[in-house]
Amino acid sequence: MKRLPVVACLLALIAALPAAAQTLEKIRKQGAIRLGYIEGAAPFSYVEGAAGEPQGYSVELCRAVADGLAGQLKREALKLQWVKLTIQDRLEAVRRGRVDLECSTTTWTLARQKLVDFSLVTFVDGGSLLVGARSEIARLGDLAGKRIAVISGTTTEKSLRDALDRQGVKAELVSIKSRDEGLALLSDGKVAALASDRTALVGLVVMSGEARGSFRLLDEDFSIEQYALVLPRGDADFRLAVNRELARLYRSGDIQKVYARWLGPLGPPSLLLSATYFIQSLSE
Fold this sequence. Notes:
It contains ten helices and eleven strands. It is about 40% helix and about 20% strand. A hairpin with a 3-residue loop joins strand 2 and strand 3 (about 45). It is elongated and about 60 Å long. The protein is α/β, with parallel strands linked by helices and about 280 residues long. It folds into two domains: about 20-125 and about 225-280, 3-Layer(aba) Sandwich (D-Maltodextrin-Binding Protein, domain 2); about 125-225, 3-Layer(aba) Sandwich (D-Maltodextrin-Binding Protein, domain 2).
């Protein structure tokens, strides 16, 4: 009789374990994985057409991870269930279990790791500024007294504020919800610059259909952004399974094909990105 309270406590403890710790088993039983994507983050995560499927560099990495997980779980294939997210709700979607993995342009930070976990680094970019082609703005210091559009709640916003403070530049930051909104403000002359990750800004202009030569990027970056796939916190087995597939991509050289498919027109991988792939090509 005295053992009943102990058993009850153990059952209560098991019930209190985070659902994240069961991700692989849930995927195995359901034969499906829920993948989060963002529409306006070309060439990393985007959709063409009303009925189009998610595509892009990060999306392809998630597809490769899903294929690898199927093998690890001894299943022929996993059904991919794509869930549309926003920049504002992507972390909460992972934390609440709406998706198992988030596939866009999320920067890995220690502050965010309090809420979610991250895979190996998938890309290295820099925070930059897009301005009009005829603008006289050449560097961050030229934005004193001007308006800069930036997506609120992002690492870009914080990095930009820090960079402006370091240089003693007083500029007005205009909060936006998407890069498309920011580009519209820039086109209409309502802001002097749009801040975001350099590669995402290139993809934004290309996808927008704006006339070539309408915009240009400043030469200097104000931050380093290291992207990673977002996954539930507290699930070491799932993180290992995801990282195993990414490491295989880096080790085999298949990552070069993925890069060429989505980022090739921008030139070869930078030395920093190449080093990132090499360092993370972990052996089994």
